[in-house]
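Justification of resources, computational component.

The compute hours requested in this renewal are based largely on the per-chain cost of generating structure records like the one below. Each record pairs the submitted sequence with a full structure-token output. That output is archived, and it is also reused by downstream analysis tasks.
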Amino acid sequence: MAYAYPEVWLASAVNAATGVDAHPVMAPEDAVFPFVVYQRTGTERPLAINPKTGNTPVCTMQVMIYTRSYTQGKDIAEQLRFALCDFTGNASGVTIKAVALVEQADGDAEPREGETIPDYVQELTFAIRYLE
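The structure output for this chain reads:
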């Protein structure tokens, strides 16, 4: 049995909206800036006697945008907000019922080795309702 995960949709949607590569959990050392790292931070499943009928869990996905400039990160965050929020439909083999941005913040800047200008991080948290 093949399963469809909202992570597959999210990675595809990030790339389509921004042209930026999206990596699960951790970016490779040779990742090209700007890039996105995403990970599932939780899943809520409704209580049901028969979970195969209409089970619509909500997963929480953290999306971290890594850029060389602060404004570039803000721009990519806005592109993602407009592209992902309120999306519904079938994409990348998964049925997305609802997407909401539940938190947005500046992340901690990460120092670059041997440089005074850091890499910048934007953090977005999305709630995604999907069919299993």
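The two ends are 12 Å apart (CA to CA). The chain has a mean pLDDT of 91.
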